[in-house]
Amino acid sequence: MDWFVAAMVGAAGGACMEAVDIIKAIKWHRQMPWNVQSDTVDPPQPRADVRPAEEHLPAPGWRAYCVAGVLRLLVGGALTGVVAATYPQSTNPLVAFLVGLGALSAVQQATTLVPLMVKNAGMAALSGANGQQPGQGQPNGALPGPQTGSPSAGNPQPDTGVAAQQDRAGQGGAV
């Protein structure tokens, strides 16, 4: 399957997910979701995470929902196209549709991992900031400190010739 065709099928999956969200909102509020006022979603209660007068915001309007729908189509199509371009032999219409369905959730989950990856990369960069590369100055790029099984720690290294230490029956022991 061509990546462009897969992207279109993935966009169709994103459109189905958007339709499901709109259907759920219509059933819940009994009106089109872009006409729902923010104070009708939940009864207005003072909360610490709500800015002043936020509970009285106007309805977002149909343009905001159209923009959100188009963005969901783009996310579904883009992710499906990338998957299809990466794995062209294993992408079929069902896989493309399912990737499009879950594309928005996958991107949301991946973006929660970005701060962790940046933090780990920063820590790795800081560990090498003292002027030497990690492992530089150590024998064979080993970590600092005594190494288990190394001759410098007082432990002899075992002979790697295991076959020389086994008898013909494979029971172990010297031949």
Keywords, please?
flat; mainly alpha; 175 residues
Task: Kindly describe this structure.
- The chain has 175 residues and is mainly alpha-helical.
- The protein is built from five helices and no strands.
- α1 (3-29) runs antiparallel to α3 and α3 packs across α4 (93-127).
- The longest helix is centred in the middle third of the chain and has 35 residues, at 93-127.
Sequence-ordered SSE layout with sheet pairings:
Layout: H1 3-29, H2 38-41, H3 62-86, H4 93-127, H5 162-165
What's the main sheet like? none
Query: What is the H/E string?
Result: HHHHH
Global outline: flat
Mean pLDDT: 75
In short:
The chain has 5 helices and no strands. With 175 residues, it is an all-alpha fold.
